[in-house]
Each structure stands twice: as C-alpha cells, then as structure tokens.
Model the fold of this input.
Amino acid sequence: MSAEFMASLIHFLGMMLLIASFWILVSSQIGACIRAYATHSFLLALITAVVAWSQHIEHLIIPALLTLALKTIVIPHVFFRIIRRLGIRKEVESYINIPFSLLLAVLLVFISFYATGEGRFLKPAAFGEFIPLAISTVFFGMLMMTTRKKAISQVLGLLLIENGLFLMAITMTFGMPLLVEMGIFFDVLIAVMIMGLFVFKIRDAFEGIDADDMTVLKG
Amino acid sequence: MNPVLLSFLQLLFLMILAPAISWFIKKMKAASQNRIGPKLAQVYADLWKLCRKDMVISETASWIFHAMPFVLFAATLAAASMVPILWNHSLFGFMGDAILFVYLLALGRFFIALAALDTGTTFGGMGSSREMTLSSIAEPALLLSFFALGFHARTLSLEGMTAHFANASSLQILFFTSLAFGSLLIVTIAESGRIPVDNPATHLELTMIHEAMILEYSGRYLALIEWGHQIKQLVFLTLLADFFFPWGIATTGGAAALGLSLVFYLAKVFGLAFVIGWIEIHSAKLRLFRAPDLLTVAFVLAILSLLGQLIIGRGV
Amino acid sequence: MELFFYAQVLLHCLGGGAGFLFDQQSESANRATHFLAVAAGAAGVVFSLAILLTGKPWIFELQGSLPVGPLRFVIDPFSAFFVLTISFLSFAASLFAVGYTREYQRKKNIALLGFFYHIFILAMLAVVTVQNAFYFLFFWELMSLASYFLVVFEHEKPEARSAGTLYLIMTHIGTAFIAAAFLLLYVHSGSFSFDAFRFAAATLSPAVKNAVFLAALIGFGTKAGVIPLHIWLPQAHPQAPSHVSALMSGVMIKTAIYAFLRFLFGFLGEPFAWWGHVVLALAILSTLLGILYALMENDLKRLLAFSSIENIGIILLGIGMALVFRVFHQPFNGGFALMAALFHVINHAAFKGLLFLGTGSVLHSAHTRQIENLGGLIRKMPWTAVCFLTGAMAISALPPLNGFVSEWLTFMALLLGFHGAGAGMPFFSPVLASLLGLAGALAATCFIKVFGISFLGKPRSEHAVQAREVSGSMKLGMGILAVSCLGLSLAAPQALKILAKIAGTLAGTDIPVETVTQRIFLISPLNSSLFSPLAVALVLLALLAVIMALPRIIFGKKLVRTGPSWDCGMPALSSRMQYTATGFSKPLRRIFSFLYQPTRRVELEDEGHEMLRTAQRFEARITHPVDEWVYRPLAALVSELSQKAKRIQTGHIQLYLSYIFITLILLLLFLGGHSS
Done:
C-alpha cells in the first residue's frame, strides 16, 4: 500500500464524513438522525485507524477502537433507548426549514474554507485540507444546537461538535496524549448520560422535550 | 458514413426511441400493480392518433397558445441535438455548451408556463406557478452538477465532457462525480415530471403540475407537447449514460463500433429508465412543499461533488 | 466626428429651452422638446460609435479662469461606450416620450418636464466624460437633482413626494461619500484632475487606499442600488414618468458603475484581495434579494426597479471577479470578466429600457400599474405585448436574446475562478455561478408572472377592458429596443471585439481579439467553451420552420374549433376565477419564508354566527429585512438625536445669535492656538 493511496483513502473518508454531516442535518426523522450520527462516528473511527496505520502511530488505535465502541454503538444505543422510553416518533422540529438549513450549512462550509485557506489559520502537520472539514463539522453541530427545538437534537449537536474537534486533533497533530483522549471519551459518555437524564427531567417538568418551554424559567 | 448525416440519424433515433422509454416505465408500473399495461405500439399509436385529431381551442387563447407547442418542441430538439448519443459527436454541439443546453430547456419551459396562463383557467395558473417554482430550484442544481463535471473534464461542452469521461479511468474520481450523478438523477426526475416530484398519470388538481399546464391542449398540439416531453426525458437519461456510464460509446463512425454502441446505449438508457421506474413504483408523491427539500439535496450533492474533487486535487 | 458631439450638446441645450417657446402645456411643446432629444440621441449614437470603432480618444477642453483647472472632457473608448448606452436609450425613450407625454397635455407643464429631461441626459453624458473630480461632483449633483425633479414631477401625489425626499436624502449621503473619496485622493495627489489621480495611484498608502475604496463603494453603491443601500431605488424609479424611469433604471445607475470602474482600475492602483470578495458578496446578495423581492411585487414599475437591483448585482459579479483576478495577476481573465460586466451594462439598458417603456404603454392605456387589475392585454395591445415579451425573455436570459449572452459571459467569468484565483475561489466561484443560475430561473418565474397575468388570460378589471393600443411613436420607441435586444445578441462577436479593447485598457493588458471571439463564436478563456448566438438563433429558426411545416404536410391542415375554457362543468368562468399574481408567487413565498417573513391577517365579519358572514378581508404582506433591520433603527436613532438637538432650539433669536458668536470665538481660538 503506497502512501499516496493511503492519503487518497483518507481524503475519500473525509468526504464521506462531510456527507454524513449533511445527512445528519437533512434527516427529518430523529431515528435517521441518530443513525447518521453513528455513521459519522464510524467514519471517524475509520479515519483514525487509517491515520494510525499509515503514519505508524500505534497508540491511535486505542481512540479508534474507543470511538467505534462508544460513539458508533453505545451512544446511539442509549439514544434509541431514550427515544423508545419517551415515545418520540415525530419528525425533527426545527425553527428553519430544511432547504434553508442546508443552504446555511453550505454557507458554513464556505466560511470554514474561506477562513482557513492558504494556511491562514494553524499550520497543519499533514492533512491540512481536513481543517475546514473539521471546522465545518463543528459549525454543523452548532447549527443543530441553535436551530432545533427538541432537547435531544441539541445533545446530538453537541456530539457532532465533539466529533469535529476530534477530527481536527487526529488529522493535525495525530491525536492528543492518550490520557487526555481517554478523559475526553469519558467526559462525552458522562455528558450523554447526564443530558439523557436532563431530557427525562425536562419531560417530567414540562410534559414535553421542547427546549422552548424553558423560556418560562426566566425571571 | 458522413458525420453530419450520422449525427442527424442518431438524433432521429433518439426521437423515435423516446416514447418507448415512457412505455417501458408505464409497463413496469403496470407489472407492479398486477396489470398488463399497454403494448409498445400503443404509445406510437397514441401520438399518431393525436396528430390526426381535430383540436378544440379556448376562445380566450391568444397566439402564445398556438406558438407554444412549436417553440417547446424546437427548443427541446435544439437541446437534444447538442447531446452525443451513439457516438462522440452531436448534430449542433458546436453552437454552445452545457449552459446553453440548460437555458434552451428554460426557453421551452418559459413558453409552456406562459401558455398555461393564456387560457385564463385556474388549473393553468396553478400548474404554471408550481412548475416555475420547482424548476427555479432545480436549475441551479442542474447547473452546479454540470459545473462539477466540467471541473473534472476541464470543459463545459457536452461533447467534450462525454469524450473526457469515455477516457476517464480513475475510479476514485469517478466516485465523486457519482455524487453529481445523484444530483443529476434527482433533477432528471424533477424535469421529466415523475414521482416523487410530479405524477404523470393523474388529473387530480391537488397534485398535478405538468398535466395542469397542458390541460387545455388537444390534437396535434398535445401530440407535440407529449412527444417533446418524452424526448426531454430521454435526453436527460442519455446525459446520465454519457457522463456516468461512458462505456461503449463509439468514437468513430465505423459500423462495428456503432453497432456495439447501439447495444450499450439501449442497455444503459433502459437500465436508467428502470431506476426511474423503480423509484416511481416505490415512493409516494411528495407534497409540493416537500419537493424543494429533495431538490436542495440535489444542490448539496453537486456542491459535495465539487468539494470532493477539490480536496482530492489539493491532497498529498 | 466631433461635429456630432457638438450637435448632441447643442440639441440638448436647445431642447431644454424649446418647450418654453410654446404654450407650456401644449402638444407643440411636447413635440419640440422630445424630437430634439431624439435628434440629440441619434447624434450621440453616431459620435460614440465612431469613437468606439476607430478607438481614438477625443479630447475637448474649455480653458479659462476656472477655479479648479480647465474643464476637460476626454472621450476614450471606455467613456464612449457609456455615451453610446446613454444616447441609444435616450434616443428610444425620447421617441416613446412623444406619445407618452400626451397624457400630461393640458394638465402639467410639459416644457418644465422637457427642461429637466434634457438637463438630466446632459448631466449623465458629462458625468461619464469629464476628467476632473470637482466638475464630476458638480455634474453628478446636477444629474441627481434633475432626476429628483423628474421623480416629483407628479408632485400632487403624496407617494411621489415622499419617494423624492427619500431619494434626495440617500443620494446626498452617497454624494458625501463620493466627495470624501475624491478629497482623499486630492490630498494625496494635490490636484483634482483624473490624470493626476492616475499618476499618483502607485504611491497611495494601503490605509488611504482602503478608505477610498470603501467610500467609493458606499457612494457609488448607493447610486447603483446595491443592497443594502438600495432603499430609495424601488420607491423613486416608479414615480417618475415611464420614459424617465427607463433612463433612470437603464442608464443612470450605470453611471455609478462607470465611476466605480474608473476608481478601481485607475485611481486605486493595485487592489487588495478583500475588495474583490466584498464586491462579490454584495453582488450575489443584490442579485438574489433583488429578484426575490421583484418576485413578490405586484406593482409593475416597482417590480422592474427591484429587478434593476438584480441586474446591477450581475454586473458587479463580473467586476468582483475582475478584481480578484487583478490581485492574482491574471489580467487576461480579469479583462474577460470586465467584458462580461460591460456587455451586461448595455444589454440591461436595452431590455430594462424596453420593459419600462412597455410598462409605460400599459400605464398609458390602462391607467394602472397593478398586475392584479390587468389581463388580456395581448388582444388589445398586440404590439406592446410582443415588445414586452421580447424584453421579458431577454431579462430571463433566454437564448437567443441578448440577456443570455451577457449572462453566459458572466458564467464563464465566474467559472474562470477554477484556476489560479486564490484559495477558496475554485469552490466559491462555481457556487456563485449556480446562484446566478438560481437568479436567472427566478427572473424567468418573475417575468412569466408579469407577462402571463397582465397580458394573457381575461381582463381583470374595467381598466384592462378599456385598454387600447398605443400610438405610433410609442410603438416605434419600443420596437427599436426590442430589435436591439435581438441585434445585440446576434452581433455579440462584433461587440466583444470593441469591448476587448476597452476591457484590455482597463485591466492593463492586451486582450487578443481572436482569443475571445472568432467569426460567429464567443470563446471562453482556456478554450473550455464555445457559444454562438447566431448559430443558436438559426438552429431554432430552422427547427421551428420544420416543425411547423412537417405536420401540415403529413396530416394536412388542422381543423380547429374554438370553445370556452374547461370550467369543470361550472358555467360562466369569470375573470375573477383566474390565478392571481399573488397566488402565482405563493409557493416561492412559502419556500423562502425565512426571508420574506410573510404575515397575513384575516378579518371576518358576521351577523352573530359564522355561517352568516357579511364581509371578509384578507391582507398579506412581506417584510423587507434590510428596511426592517437597518433603516428603521437608523431612522429612529436620527429622530431621537434630532429630538435631543431640539433642546438648543428655544425660539429666541438672541440665543441663536449667541451660538454663532460663540462658534466664531471658538474657531478663532482654535486657529490662534494652531498658528502659535
């Protein structure tokens, strides 16, 4: 396997990752959204593994496996359980319609490309072209968190942001120290658990998980 | 054979084949519903019969109504004449590029939408409004997928792009142009008025778009419109075949190459028609205000295709 | 050659006064003033064509004891191109005006209208030729004021007065910025002459350059109607008499483009990368928002004004790309982008002028601008309908008319960004191009609405029933422009030869003619595409002929019966059952609801029970985000500040005098402090 082939493979996976990000945004069913997130994470794990293999950084295999286990299997599973328990079957509710959020997303990709062009921002180690991809993933997560109504979508948005940051770390510096990474994974897991609890609590308190209901909490 | 004559013959062939594609999809649908469906000769007989019938024309109609079928057919045919079909050249491919192709179709659409408003009925206005709404959103997607393909081929001429893809080998780059395929496929469905965007087999006021526009037409005019519509559908399928399944297209005018090309071409367009028919059978018509979602997906796919090529191009 | 120039100026001067020789409200005043304008326009066309074809600039200088240097006019090919645009459109519009102004006879002072009309055209001509910043500002102001008086010509209407006031305010804000830009250059170069500006361009410091660029962008952007500075345009343009609206939309806003190009490619030296990006961003914003708001309008002239904003956006797309290429030292590509922009300038003048004149005809004979009250005009006004349809097709960028040619060139200019235009551009430029395609498709939708609802179907009101075809001069005025829409397309290769020289001079390179056009073909750089308007027209014509002839030969003559439209079995289909303009644009209003923020109000009245309904009122409106979010708070702020400033205004004359006194003392102190 030549290095060139590896690089193309990583680029290919990066594109797929972006497509998966768009998929999360366009999904109008909450289930599809979670499945798209699982795919997104799976691709991330693959990228990590390929980077580990091609650059001979063996310790990256561990985060790759953790990503695979946690984000592609455990977290989606937790989500599906929450959905089942809450009995949500409805469509994802958004403040803006799908074409507009897609166009916004394209605009965000635009911005992330513009802002990071020509090494204007951070000198990359190897895969400089991944910086805009990672940043747009982060942007997408923020877009989801700001435009979606249901609390569950906001949790997904947060996870998407985390994926973006992880991608940035992997492709630019070949991962953070193992200990830090383990800590982050643990944090994410705990965050999902806590937010899951919150979603339940919000449901109990307001009889719905519409985050809009929380506007009544202000003084 | 004389290249001009050959190009002319292939255009003629496309015109004659066009109703057969519609028949094929109808037959598929019928088979899925346990019906027998029409015979192949039926679609041609329909057109023949329509041509011979007298016409009833609304008294409100002006010359726009009379001119429309001809302008629509001429514009569609002009667009069709730019597309390579059996071999690498087309009759009038020299006169312009993919952008001209898109705008020639827009010319036909402009007139059909005007003629719909000409008779002063609600149906016409409704169809016209819906058609223009959807095509406004489909057009940028169509253009962008052409640009994505043109970026790869370094040209926007339809002949040049076909020639480029016929020689392309790298599977990897083909993958990203295949995102453009998705985009172009969605636009094809929208442009040929098929489920899930429009339902060609209904006269129900809530759902019809294309049929609403031509409700007042009869006789020879209707035949021209229907045939033109079928040609447009086949032209889009031909483009899909040219760009994404470029195998077997003849580069010379020799009889053997052309014969092979004919077999390949038929397989490709019927295969693509099968895909369209399969989608039509397996999906429900989208609500009018859901259709833009689908078209936006086409737009985003084209953007991703472009982006993919750029990233690959910039890569290590 | 110069004879024609003198003739043009003289005829305009004569024409301005001619009306006053006769009864000021009479037919003779109308004829005298407008026929002189026609003659002046014709002379201008001949003169500018001569300059363009020979390529030799012509200089005219008035020496004398003028305070800021000689009054110098230089008509180089670039200026001549704009002179041509102005003269040609004023030629057709004046011809139209002969018939159109009959409307005002015995009601308004036609001599006065003619006076301002001639001054307006003359000032525009001076703006695009004068070579001195001081005189430029003078003529610029003259142009603005003359057009202001034309906007408020029907001053008995309150909306004309308020539109005029808004126009006056906005145009003066713009002029202030332009003056600031010129003054900055003056401080640097020590002279008001354009040559001095050009000479000193290389030594400008980056900070001054940026400041001048921004001031010019705001100043000329206001005149050109770039979003978000467009607010006056859709209000002021519709209020003027239609032939003046045609000139305002067709050429007046282009003078801003002219001056902006002079700044960018003359006075500012090497540009910075962000300039091009800012221009592109404003351009695409204007293009999309302009057409989206045009789509929602039901007032013919307001709709056309919004679509002018769109077209200014398209022109700016070309200019933005030219700037980008200039930064990356690709003068050839930059020149090509400029050619696209310039060609769209004259094309837009032709079809927008045509559409405004067509609207004028409709207004003249049906006395309404509301699309909802028209309908069926194609039967009553066949000539106007054909002309209007030509304009509508051209503006929708349909082949084989001229709108498509310049849009194709703009597409090509944008797609050139694939190669060597800096990071991001390979990605941005095709997306921008596809958004231009979106704008084109929306424009088609918009003009199908306009033409379909107002000319086709059944008359929707008594006004439309009463409509009659307009007089010969009006038909001729429109006809000339309609023919030019086709002519400019077929003659595009010849036009490009001239434009190549102009754009080459601006971009500072030599554009070999054979690289952009060969015989009947237009060629995009890098040889990626060819296009021939003539071939398209011929192929379409041939196909049309064959298709019309063949069925007749094979099946014989068709038998046609006429009957009523399909009415679903319900007798008496009335004109009120037709689709309305509002209904036509409803789907798009819903899809772009995030932009329009549509609101609707339904009022129902009944007699105690919902089944006994007596009246039902429905109101739907959309919001204009720029007005809502920028200008409303700004207006509130200004009025608040004025309220505060009111405190020093007590009404005692002594106090006012003491203000002057104190100011004088302070100034003296300031000066004294400086000199010591």
About this structure: Chain A touches chain C through ten residues (CB under 8 Å).
